[in-house]
Structure prediction request, 1278 residues.
Amino acid sequence: MSPVDTSVEDPMSTSTPVRTPEGGAPPHSAEAEQGRVAGGIFDPKALLKSFPDACRKLDPRVMIKSPVMFVVEVGSVITTALALTDPGDWFGWAITVWLWLTVLFANLAEAVAEGRGKAQADTLRKAKTDTVARRLNGSAEEQVPGTDLRIGDLVVCEAGDIIPGDGDVVEGVASVDESAITGESAPVIRESGGDRSAVTGGTKVLSDRVVIKITTKPGETFIDRMINLVEGAARQKTPNEIALNILLASLTIVFLLAVVTLQPFAIYAKAEQTMIVLAALLVCLIPTTIGALLSAIGIAGMDRLVQRNVLAMSGRAVEAAGDVSTLLLDKTGTITLGNRQAAEFVPVKGATAAEVADAAQLSSLADETPEGRSIVVLAKEEYGLRERHEGELEHAEWVPFTAQTRMSGVDLEENGVARKVRKGASGSIIAWVRERGGTVAEDAQRLTETISEAGGTPLLVALEDAVGARVLGVIHLKDVVKEGMRERFDELRRMGIKTVMITGDNPLTAKAIAEEAGVDDFLAEATPEDKMALIKREQAGGKLVAMTGDGTNDAPALAQADVGVAMNTGTSAAKEAGNMVDLDSNPTKLIEIVEIGKQLLITRGALTTFSIANDVAKYFAIIPAMFAVAYPGLDKLNIMSLHSPQSAILSAVIFNALIIVALVPLALKGVRYRPMSADSMLRRNLGLYGLGGLVAPFIGIKIIDLLISLIPGIG
Amino acid sequence: MSPVLAGVLQLLALFVALALVYRPLGDYMAAVYSSTKHLRVEKWIYRCIGANPTAEMRWPAYLRGVLAFSAVGLLLLYLLQRAQGVLPKGLSLGFHAISPDQAFNTAASFVANTNWQSYSGEQAMGHAVQTLGLAVQNFVSAAVGIAVAIALVRGFARSRTGNLGNFWADLVRGTVRILIPIAVIGALVLVACGAIQNFAGIHEIGQLTGGTQQVNGGAVASQEVIKELGTNGGGYFNANSAHPFENPNGLSNLFEPFLILVIPFALTRTFGKLVGNVRQGYAILATMGLIWLGFTALMMWTEFHHGGPALQAAGGAMEGKEQRFGVGGSSIFAVATTLTSTGAVDSFHSSYTGFGGGITLLGMMLGEIAPGGVGSGLYGMLVMAIIAVFIAGLMVGRTPEYLGKKIGTREIKLAACYILITPTLVLGFTALSMALAGPPDSILNTAANSVRDSGAHGFSEVLYAFTSGANNNGSAFAGLNANTPWYNTTIGLAMLLGRFLPMVFVLALAGSLAEQRPVPETAGTLRTHKPLFAGLLVGVILIITGLTYFPALALGPMAEGLS
Prediction:
C-alpha cells in the first residue's frame, strides 16, 4: 500500500457548476457554484451598460466582419438618405429608425457577450500587479522588476511573496493561494519534481520557500493569455463559424438578388416600389437573426467554459469538444474517488469477522492514510466498534504506516497480557508472522488472490498474543466508483461517445472497475506511450479524442488529442501541450466540456433554422403590401389581415429587430441541452426552432400590427 | 371511368412500373460504373479518342475532360447547323443554314442537355442535323451528366484520395452500356405504339378543309426515346410530344414519362450501392418521390378543379391539352418534364391554369432535383442534402457530416456557390429582359416585341424562358417568341452557364470530399437515412427555393392564379 497522495485538495471539493452527480459535494463548493452559474444568466441591465460599445461597433470597418449586418447597415444609410430628402414621410422615418435599431441590437448582443468577459478580465488584471522578483544570480539574490524576467531565470519566493511569473518549482515545497485565478480559496501544494510543480504568476506563496524556474516571457504569461481570452481580443472565428458565415453570406446574396431584380418586375407590373420598401424587404429576408447573434453565441460559448473555470486556448477546441467520440478518462479522481476504501473484513478459517474487524481497527488507528481511515470507518459502521483514540489505550506503542515497512499496527499491554496487531501488504505481514514463528493460515493465500481477482486490494491482518503469531483475516480494499458515474456513462453512450478508462492497475483490477463503472473500454497498466498509441489508433479511425492530463509525460498525448484538458495543478509542459486548462483540476469536467461544445453548435443551428423559417411569414406580410394594388388577387396572401400596407411592412421590420433582442438571452445561455440520441435531439430542435420559427413571426407581426394600428394618424 | 380516376390510375401504373425497375436498373448502373472490364467496342472507342480508361483522374482533370468534350460537341453542332445549306438535299431536306445566333442557341441547348428550341424542327432541321447532331448530343450530354453525378458519389464513397475515376470511361460506359441498350428497347416500344422511324422526305398531303399540309418523315422514334431517357426534351417536331408521330397514344404518353423518370430515380439506388449503404439512397429517393408525387397531385387538383362552366364541362382545364391524353395524362407529363431537366411537352404549359403554370415553374426552380435530370438530379439533390445537413446537422450538437464526410468551410463554400448560380442566371436575365423591354407599347426594343401578352402572364413567359434555360429544362411556356438575337444569346448563355458552372463546383466538391478521411458513425451522428431527414430535406428544398423566387412567382403565376 503506497498512498503517497500529497495533494491537499479533496478531489470532490471542486466546483462543478451544472450538475454534480457525485452528490455529496462539500458545502463550500456549492456556494462557489452559485456564484459562478449566476454569470450564465442574462442580466437586462447589461444591455444598457453595453450600449456605448454597441455604438462604437457601428464603424463599417468593424461591421464588414459580419456580412449580413453590414448589408443592414448599408440599407440603413440608404433609407436615412431617402428619409432626409422627404422629411415629411413618417413611414420612411419609421423604417429608417427600425433598421438602425436592428444594427444596434446586433452590436448590443455582441457587446453584452464581450462585456461579461471584460468584467472577468478586470478581476484578473488586479492579480497582475507589478511584482518585484528575487532573482538568483549564482548564489546571490538580486531584486528585479517582474517584467524583466526571462525564460530560465531562477527566482526565490517565500511566504507572503507574490510569484512573479509562470514557472516550475525546482526546489522546495510550498502552499500557494491560487484564488486569484481559480477563485478557490483553499491553498494548494506546489513542490519540485512530480506533476505538481507548476506555479502561475500572480498567485501567492503562503508558507515555506521555493525556487522557481521561469518558463514564460512577461506579457505571455498564463494570466495575460487568460485576460486576452476572456476579453475576446484573441478570439478567432472557428471553422464551423466561418462555414456558417459563408452560408449566411450566400443566402444574403440570394435575397439581395431577389430584391434587386424585383424592381424591374414591379415596374413591368406597374407597381414600382420605393427604395425604402425594397430596403425593408431585403433586411427582413436576409438572415439577420442568426447574423446578429452568431458572434455573441461564440463568445458566450467560450464564456460558459470560463464560468466553469475552464480556459480554452482556442474556440476551435470548444467546437472539437462537441464532436468528440472517444473520451479517455483517468481512473483515479475521475471515475473512482481517488483512494481505495475498506469494503469487507474476511476472516480465515478459525477466526471470526468480528475479531478481524477489531484487530484491523486497532492496527489502523495509527494509519492516517485515507485507506487506514476507511478501515476505522468500516469497523464502526459494520461492527459497531467505537473508534478508539490513541490516548485511550494504555501502554500502547504505535507503529505508524511507512512506505518501507508497508504495515501499521500497535503493541498493547493490557492487564499484563501483551498483544501485537498488524495490518498491511500481504508480503510484509506474512514475513512478520513467520519471523515470530507463527503460522499463516492455509486459506489466507487463497482469500488474497480472490480479492485481487475481483479488482480489490487485499490487506492482511495479523495478531500475536499468548497463542502465538497468526493471520486473522483479510481486509478487502476497493476502489470506490463515484456515485452517478454509471448513469453518466450511459448518457455519453446515448450521445455516441465511447469512454475509455485509463489506469495503472493490472488488467484484472482494471476490468473489475471498468465493469462496475460502466465504461466501454479500459487501458490497464497504461504507460504514456500506451496512451499515445490509443489516441492515434482512435484518430486513425476518424474519431476525435478528448483526454485530461497533468504530468509532463502526459504532454505528448495532450498535444495529440483533439481536446486536451490540462489540470491547473499539473506541470507547465502539460499546460502548454493541452488546448484547455481546467483551473479546478477536476478531470470529471471533461464531460461538461463536451456538453458545452455540443450546446454551442446546437445554439448556432437552432437560431439559423429559426432565422430562415421566419422569412416565410415576412413574405406573407410584405408581398401583398407591395403588390395588392397592382394585382388585387395578391391580397389573398395577406393571411394575417394586416391593417395597411405600410403597417404590414413596418410590423415585419419591427418584428425582425425585436426578435434579435428577444433571442439575446438564448444566444448567451445556449439552448437547453440534455444528453440524448441524435434522432430525438433533431426531432425536438426541429419542432422547437423549425416549426416555432415558422409560426412565431405570424403571431408576432400580427400583434405589432395591431399595436401600430392603434397609433392615431397612421394607416 | 371518370377523368380523375383515369388520371390517378395512370399515375399508379407509372409508380408501379418505376418501382419494378428501380432495383435492377440501379444495381446494374452501380455495376457498370464500378466494373474493371472493358467491352470490345469501348476499347475501340478509347483507342480512337486516345484515352486511357484506367487512369484515375483528380477533379481538375475530370473537369477538363467534361469541358473539353462539351466544347468540341458545341463547336461541331454549331458548324453542322451552319453548314446545313451546303449539305445534299437527302441530308438537309432542302433547309437552309441556321442563322449564327440560333445555331449557337441550339448547339448550347443540346450540349447543355437543355434542348430549348427556338426553331421549329420540321421547318428548320434536316436529317443530318437531327440524327447526327442533335440525337448524338442527346446521348452524350446525358452521359456527361451521369458521369459527373458518379464522380460526386465516388467523392463520398472514397477517402484519402483525390481520385474520382476516369471521365472518358464513365462517358463511354454510360452511353454504350446504359443509354443505348435502353434506347433500343424503348424505340421498339414506341414504334409498336405507332411512332415513325424512317428517312423519308417531306410529304404534301391534302387536308379535310381543302388546304395542303407538309408532313415530314424521319428517325423519330429513335430520337424520341433518347429525348425522354436522357432528360433532353428537344422534339423532332415543333409540337414535341403532342405530335402524334412522337407520342401516338395513351400508352406511349405513359411510357414517355416512365423513360424520363427511370434513370434519375434509379440513380439513387446506384448511389446507395456505391456508398455502401442502400438506405442512404432510399432517403434521397423518398425525398425525390415525395416532391414528385406531391407536385403531380397538386397539378391534377388544380387542373381538374378549375372553375368556370366551360372548363367544368370539359372535365377540367383542357385548353392547350391533347384530347388523346386528357387532363390526367397531361398533368403527369407536365410535372415529370419540369421536375426533371427534360422539357419535352405533350401539352402547352402556357395554357395551364395560373397555379398549374406556377407548379411547372416551381418544379424547375427547385433546381430539377426531384428526381431531376439524368445525373444532374442526383448531384443537385446531394448538394441540397449537404445544405440541409449543415443547417439542421448543427442541431444535434456536432460539426455537420454527411455520409461520414465533414461538411466544413470548403464544402459549404462550394455548395453555396452551386446554389447561387441558377437564381443569379434566372433572376438576373429576367430582370434585364424586363428592364430592357420597357412598357409594352415601346416599339424600338427587340425584347419588348417578344412580350406579346401583357400583365402577369406575359411576365411568367419571360420568367419561364430563363428558368427553363438556366435549369437546363428546355420546355417553353409558349407565347414568347424567343427566336430573337437577344433571347437566343441570353438563353444560350443561361443554358451553358447553368449547366457547366454547377459541374465545376460539384466536381470540386467531389474532390474535396474524396480527400477527407471518413468519420465513423456513432449514436450522436445525424442519421441521414431516416424519414425525419427526408422530411427535413423536402422542407429545406421548398423553403430555400420558395424564399428565393417568392417575389417573382407572386408577380407571375400567383397574381394570375389568385385573380
About this structure: Residues 351 and 486 of chain B are 25 Å apart (CA to CA).
